[in-house]
Amino acid sequence: MLVHCSIVLFYVMFAFSFALVQLNVKRREFATIKGGRILHNSTTTILTQIVQSSVVCSSLCSIQGTCCYASYDRKTKQCILDESCCPQSEPSPDALILKKLEDSLSCQKEWFNYESKCYYFGGVITTWNDAKLTCESYGSMMVEVKSNCENDFLKTKAATYKASYWLGGTDIKIEGIWIWSSSQTEVTFSDWNVGNPNNANDNEHCLGMNYGAELKWNDYPCSGKLRTICEKVTVVIDETFEGGCFIHIKRAHNELINTMHVTIKYRNFTKFNKEKFIEDLKAKNFNEILYFDNPDHALDAWYSKLLNVLNKHAPIITKRVKKKSQPKWLNQVINQLRAKRDFYHKKRDFENYKLFRNKLTAQINKCKTDYFSKAVQSNSKTSEIWKHLKDLNAESKCPITSVTFQGSDVNEPKKVCEHFNEHFGL
């Protein structure tokens, strides 16, 4: 009996220890803020639920991909999950706010991580347009401030450099309508300095943070010279498996990336004059870079001066290249099979070539069948069904020229259309 009790006690202690380990694991995934709770927001709140502990609440946040913050009230046992990384909150002595800690991005040297982006605070004063080109040369864009939290982060970091900085906003197209130049979206969050924007002398169309006004926002002449802040965003590729076919979705900031068109950028040397280029290059005062203590900032200054001249003589042209959208049934499996088929064809290994050619054909037929069957069956709108049938007919090498109706083959085009209309019009 004593042995039996000892065994039971051992398992109880083991289970308790395991629970503590699990609790610690969960705790390490979240930063805990005591004495506060998140306010419910109809736009950003994901879930409001009664649960038994903060561990359960944090677990719910863990499995919700879009959850950024959670709060748990120990008195009411209410758990709130919120997708905003800057949620509104209020003091509450019985509550906890739990911030999900995501893996930090591997930002380059001199770049700083905040949330899901990397930021670069340039040390060179330059015009707004040159600042934009500099950011693009780094594979990034001028910073676009979307929230108070992000703005506070930028102000805190910029204050350490004691300088004013360009932001990516402009109203150059329509006076008073401020947009972010890279994403072409409207500026919804703002932190304007008193009396701004004022478009002084009808010549202030570019946005910047004014160090002399506690880094509040000012409108500046675009030809003015400030430092710049660049940002890089992450692109996450989600893969879901549906009906044997992989569907790839690219997301950036939870917004779908438009893949209907691509743009290419290139330098236009049509009017390039070598002598004038060298002449303008000699006119630049490159000795200024000697005053920088930081070699990276010195390099930035040199590169900015070079870009300034190069952009004048060989401007960067952005051209949109149209491409037909890929069929919706196309997936990664098909691409892999196609690559293997082409590989063996190139190697003149015709046995494997035929094998993967047949596999490719079978996979294409399967994905087409799955996609169009589901599309037709899941739609109740006649217009949508006809659209899918049109797509199917366009993909087919053999257009629909006959149908079987009530056991008989119908080949006359007019009759085929009538039977289709009769069938789908029911």
Give an overview of the whole structure.
The protein has helices at residues 2-28, 54-63, 128-137, 148-161, 274-283, 295-313, 332-346, 350-377, 382-395, 413-424, and strands spanning 30-38, 45-50, 69-73, 78-82, 89-100, 111-114, 117-121, 141-142, 165-170, 179-180, 185-186, 206-210, 216-220, 227-233, 236-242, 245-252, 255-256, 261-267, 316-322, 403-405, 408-410. Strands 6, 7, 8, 9, 10, 11, 12, 13 and 14 form a nine-stranded mixed sheet that branches. The chain has a five-stranded antiparallel sheet with strand order 1-5-3-4-2. Helix 3 crosses helix 6 and helix 5 (274-283) runs antiparallel to helix 6 (295-313). The radius of gyration is 30 Å and the shape is extended. The model is unreliable at 1-28 and 234-261 (pLDDT under 50). It is α+β, with helices and mostly antiparallel strands and 426 residues long. It comes from Mytilus coruscus (Sea mussel). Keywords: Disulfide bond, Membrane, Transmembrane, Transmembrane helix. InterPro entries: C-type_lectin-like, C-type_lectin-like/link_sf, C-type_lectin/snaclec_domain, C-type_lectin_CS, CTDL_fold. Residues 114-231 form the C-type lectin domain.
